[in-house]
Amino acid sequence: MITTETLGGLELFEGLPEHALRTIAAMSEELSFAAGTVIFSPEQASQRIFLLLEGSVRLTVFASQLTEPMTVTMLTTPGQAFSFSSIVGRGYHNSSAEALSDIRAIAIPGQSLMEYLAREPAVGFVVMTRVANLINRRLGALRKLLLETIIDLERPSSTTPEN
Q: Which among 16, 47, 60, 118 is least surrounded, fewest beta carbons within 10 Å?
């Protein structure tokens, strides 16, 4: 069982009222994944948002059908959220998540969480603002990776990148 203390210590839910933490904890479960496990991939419907408790997760995207997946971020800090598509977006993952080590994570059904946040707009505003900030940080990292990739592709092969 997920405790309110555990949830309240995570960035997404920090400082929420006790009643909100109790409700979210009741719909949450702790899951474990062995190293090497693919937690989700783009062809799967996104049903849960995850919050990392322990271990490390690699998020990857496929740039094209012809390439190997590209790592877009590594999650190693407790509380980092992933699988936002369960609460925003199309309802399908746009990346893959793989456990790089044995991990423990909190899983919250996206639809249940969104229904609760709609009933509690003050709590919903705080949580969704934090989700937006997390997505913004993740997009910033993707933008940086994209620019580095473009620069590497445009650099003549006879030059060496500066450090």
A: 118
- What is the 3-state secondary structure of 129-148? HHHHHHHHHHHHHHHHHHHH
**Domain segments of the chain: what residues?**
4-154
Strand partners, 103: 33
Element (H, E) at 114: helix 110-119
- Looking at residue 99, its pLDDT comes to 96
CATH class of segment(s) 4-154: mainly beta
Q: Which helix (H) or strand (E) holds 19?
A: helix 18-27
Residue 89 φ/ψ, nearest 5 degrees:
95, -155
User: What is the reported pTM?
Assistant: 0.83
The average confidence (pLDDT) of the chain is: 88
b (16+ CB within 10 A) / e for 110-140 = bebbbebbeebeebbebbeebbeebeeebee
> Which two three-digit tokens encode residue 56?
């490390």
Tell me how many degrees the CA angle 87-74-143 measures, rounded to the nearest 5.
Answer: 75
Q: With a cut of 80, say whether residue 87 has pLDDT above it.
A: yes
Q: Is pLDDT larger for residue 81 or for residue 146?
A: 81
Residue 162, pLDDT above cutoff 60: no
